[in-house]
Specification:
Layout (H helix, E strand, L loop, with lengths): L3 H23 L20 H23 L3 H19 L11 H25 L6 H26 L9 H24 L19 E2 L2 E2 L2 H6 L1
Antiparallel strand pairs: 1-2
Helix pairs in contact: 1-2, 1-6, 2-3, 2-6, 3-4, 4-5, 4-6, 5-6
Length: 226
């Protein structure tokens, strides 16, 4: 049975994805070249922080549930960090195109970088544990890393004074975001299918006469005394 935390995580992820999709539909920004952060300066830009906040809440709920289940501390920490970064990205908008980097723009940029690196790492950790969705998680995590490199190439080239020219940075950034949201969803599904460990010292439940108590066979007479 899915826990309330996990169910809430899926609900908020769905809400965040819906808000992001709606933003793309109602805005006229070119998705091939315009960056997602630029939506903040469009008439319906309020949908961007709403989407990012909902995604952050979903990731945080998954992280709390993983910690509660003792289902992977390192992965839970990465999901928590991703959540914090999403909130920072929402709270500190990027600079308008053509404007020099401000403090808000810097926080936005580096929080996005940490988030984009952290989610593939969490996916690889969960994939390394095997089980359901492991192969898909591994493939998506590697793909997200490749897309991230493609996003960073124009920034790196400008650092060395080389203008990258026309490209599809907007498309590659969207591929990173979509891939990482799918990774997060699969981590939630994988965690939902993991049973919480039984507390130490707690005996197994007796289900019927003639079965075992804490692994030892008992008779019906003994069961009557329990």
């Amino acid at each position: 049975m899915t826990s309330p935390l996990t169910a809430g995580g899926f609900a908020t992820l769905a809400g965040g994805a819906a808000a992001m999709a709606a933003l793309h539909v109602v805005s006229d920004l070119d998705p091939l070249h315009g960056m997602i952060s630029e939506y903040a300066y469009h008439p319906h830009g309020w949908l961007l922080p709403v989407s990012l906040t909902l995604l952050a809440v979903g990731s945080a709920l998954f992280a709390v549930e993983m910690s509660r289940r003792h289902a992977g501390r390192s992965c839970a920490l990465l999901l928590g960090a991703w959540s914090v970064c999403m909130l920072l990205i929402a709270a500190f908008p990027t600079d308008r195109p053509g404007v020099s980097l401000s403090m808000s723009g810097g926080i936005h940029r580096y929080a996005a970088f940490v988030a984009f690196v952290g989610m593939p790492a969490a996916g690889l950790i969960m994939a390394g544990r095997g089980g359901a969705h492991a192969r898909t998680l591994r493939g998506l995590s590697v793909a997200a890393g490749v897309f991230l490199i493609l996003v960073l190439i124009p920034y790196a080239s400008r650092t060395f004074g080389v203008e990258p020219g026309a490209g599809v940075a907007g498309l590659t950034q969207r591929l990173v975001v979509v891939t990482e949201v799918v990774i997060l969803t699969l981590i939630g599904l994988k965690n939902a299918g993991t049973r919480a460990p039984r507390p130490a010292g707690r005996p197994a439940r007796v289900e019927a006469a003639g079965e075992t108590v804490a692994g030892a066979p008992v008779s019906a007479a003994v069961l009557q005394k329990i």
